[in-house]
């Protein structure tokens, strides 16, 4: 059983003459521990695909199974449970909580976890150190640079300790050096066993991953594995 299984997945937004077909009969299998990039022109369906993989959206047709669970059969509560347990998102605009501290942002995924405060603090401190942002712990995130914000976003994704990390243009707002550092971090997480899917327009960024899926007009045009 693959970790991610999309079978003939289509996604249509809107109805009748206003309908947009964002994905057309997409079939993808991904095993645990894969590191994949999704490339394609603007509007080709990349974010829609990532949203479906992350259980933020469901297919109009076809089947999506995550870790063997048929996602479109779940109700909203079950969907949010599987999302919280299995998936972490990293967005281009970081999606941090403004006016909260670095610590509070990184601790967010642990909010509802049944752990003692001490255990939570240990975990957050561990990832703050790992990302080299421990000295920023009390700082308001709105005062940080782009590269620092991205580190906070990655620390938050790591703290969740989810098996699947989905990143939509994670280096889009970063300069080359910070972009490369972020990809090194994702490589490290992949080596530690995480499954990672990254949307990117950038061949260099895709070069860090082990498999490249190209999508054009909602159709997969290429799916190739490579050695790093
Ligand atoms: N919620 C929505 N309602 C209506 N149409 C949508 C919605 N989301 C996406 N679309 C349409 O679906 C198509 C695919 O969009 P999607 O955002 O997945 O593309 P993308 O490849 O991620 O683009 P970009 O690289 O510009 O972010 C586009 O034509 C878009 O306009």
3D architecture notes:
- α4 (117-130) crosses α5 (146-160) and α5 runs parallel beside α6.
- The chain has 228 residues and is of the alpha/beta class.
- The strands form two sheets. Strands 6-7-8-3-9-10 form a six-stranded mixed sheet, with helices on both faces.
- The protein has a single domain (4-225), classed as P-loop containing nucleotide triphosphate hydrolases (Rossmann fold), CATH 3.40.50.
- Helix content is 32%, strand content 27%.
- The structure holds adenosine-5'-triphosphate (ATP).
- Adenosine-5'-triphosphate binds next to β2 and α1.
Secondary structure blueprint with pairings:
Elements: E1 4-13, E2 20-30, E3 35-39, H1 46-53, E4 61-66, E5 69-70, H2 76-86, E6 87-91, H3 102-107, H4 117-130, H5 146-160, E7 164-168, H6 176-191, E8 195-199, H7 203-206, E9 211-216, E10 219-225
Parallel strand pairs: 3-8, 3-9, 6-7, 7-8
Antiparallel strand pairs: 1-2, 1-4, 4-5, 9-10
Helix pairs in contact: 4-5, 5-6
Bound molecules: adenosine-5'-triphosphate.
Unreliable segments (pLDDT under 50, ≥5 consecutive)? none
| Separation of the first and last Cα atoms | 25 Å
Q: How much helical structure, as a percent, in the residues? A: 25-40%
Name the CATH homologous superfamily. P-loop containing nucleotide triphosphate hydrolases
Largest sheet: 6 strands, mixed
CATH fold annotation: Rossmann fold
Kindly name the structural category.
alpha/beta
Strand content: 25-35%
Please trace the helix and strand order, writing H or E for each element.
EEEHEEHEHHHEHEHEE
Bound molecules: adenosine-5'-triphosphate
Contiguous helical run count: 7
- Summarize model confidence as the mean pLDDT: 91
Q: In the CATH classification, which architecture applies?
A: 3-Layer(aba) Sandwich
